[in-house]
Fold:
Amino acid sequence: MTESLRGSCLCGGVRFEVAEPFSYTTHCHCEFCKRISGGYGTVSGRVPTSAIRLLQGEELLRSYTPQGGSAKTFCSTCGSNLFGGGWPESESSSVRLAAFGLEFDRKPEAHTFVRSVAAWEILPDDGLPRYEIRAT
Ligand SMILES: [Zn+2]
Ligand SMILES: [Zn+2]
Structure:
C-alpha cells in the first residue's frame, strides 16, 4: 500500500490527495497550458479521476474549458492551476506537479505538444521523447 500524495494551491485554500501513482508524467507545451501557466506550459501526472480526492476548498475551485481543449481547474483565490484533462467529469485527469511542492521527485517522461513551442521558449535537451501533439 502506497501513501497517498498530498497537494495544495499556492494560498493553501485548496488541498487534495492523489491515491494512486501517476500512470505517466509529462511536460505539456500547448498554447492553452502556456496561457494558463504564464510560462512554458504545465507539468502534470495522469491518474484516474476517482483517485483524486479533495480534502479542503472545493468551493474555491473554478474551471475553464477553452474551445477545442479540456477543462482546466484553478483556485479562485490564488490562481494556481491544479487540474486539467477535463477534471472532474473525465475518466482520467491531469494533476499539476507543482501542487506537490519541491520535494516531489518523479521526473516527467515526455514533452507533448512540441508543435506549439514558442519563439521565447527553451526546449531542454534532456533526451526525453518529444511528441508533436500528445503521446500515443
Ligand atoms: Zn489558492
Ligand atoms: Zn497543454
Q: What stands out?
A: The longest strand covers residues 42-48. The domain at 5-116 is CATH 2.170.150.70 (Metal Binding Protein, Guanine Nucleotide Exchange Factor; Chain A). The CA atoms of residues 14 and 70 lie 21 Å apart. The pocket of zinc ion (ligand 2) is lined by residues 28, 30, 32-33, 41-42, 113 (CB under 6 Å).
